[in-house]
Structure formats: C-alpha cells, structure tokens
Design a protein that fits this description.
The protein is α+β, with helices and mostly antiparallel strands and about 80 residues long. The chain contains one helix and four strands. Strand 3 and strand 4 form a beta hairpin. The N and C termini lie far apart (about 25 Å).
C-alpha cells in the first residue's frame, strides 16, 4: 500500500525557516525525530546555501515532509 505524507512548504518571508520548524516540531513530541535532510547549495538557482530542498521528520511516528521554496508563489505557506 502506498503512503501519503503531509508536506510543509515555506515560501516568501517564511522561506529559509523549514529546518527551524522541523526542529521545533520534533522537540515538542515524544517519539519524534528528523530522519533525513537534503540541503540545497548555492549553485541551485533561487536557493541560498543551507536552505532545505526537502527533509523527512516524524512526530510520534507519523512521517512529514518539509521544504524551503524560494521563487514567486501566490502563497507564503502551505
């Protein structure tokens, strides 16, 4: 059976705060951890070094994905 994941995308003024958010969320709940982080480097257009391309974390065993999303979006967070 295929899994689905809740996905948090940080854009606009929130862009660059994905890792901070994942650390906060995982610190608040037992059985929670950041399992994998993929960083974007300065060679990626629109990204600043250290921004999160995508990360996988768990809250009480439930998996979530999170990412920074630079660029022109019609929203600031989803």
């Amino acid at each position: 059976m295929q899994k689905t994941h809740t996905f948090f995308l940080f854009t606009g003024e929130q862009c660059g705060k994905a890792l901070e958010a994942a650390k906060l969320y995982t610190s608040l709940f037992k059985n929670s951890e950041i399992k994998d982080i993929k960083y974007m480097g300065p060679e990626q257009q629109g990204y600043k070094e250290g921004m999160i391309a995508h990360a996988l974390f768990t809250i009480n065993g439930q998996e979530y994905l999170i990412s920074d999303g630079p660029g022109d979006h019609k929203f600031s967070f989803n």
